[in-house]
Design brief:
The structure is a single chain. This protein is an all-alpha fold. The protein has 2 domains: 44 residues; 33 residues. It is built from 4 helices and no strands. Helix 2 packs across helix 3. The protein is elongated. It starts with a helix and ends with a helix.
Length: 78
């Protein structure tokens, strides 16, 4: 799995030790790919698109609140 994640042939990998660092690398790659697939699946339906918009709004919410509670000079600069 590690060779596949790294995009190399398993026979060419020099280190054969599979410790926690390698497990984390594989888990991280799998998680990243799963998130990409989730977004792709959600984008295929109207309800999924709404969920994606809400996620984006949630990510921006802290900036919006911070900007709304900041001074007028900062809002002008923003």
């Amino acid at each position: 799995m590690l060779a596949h994640v790294r995009g190399v042939d398993a026979d060419t990998m020099k280190d054969r030790y599979y410790g926690q660092a390698y497990e984390r690398e594989v888990e991280s790659a799998v998680s990243s790919r799963q998130e990409v697939h989730k977004v792709e699946l959600l984008a295929e339906t109207l309800r999924g698109q709404s969920i994606l918009r809400l996620r984006e709004e949630k990510e921006n919410l802290l900036d919006v609140v911070w900007l709304a509670t900041s001074g007028s000079e900062l809002r002008t600069l923003w």
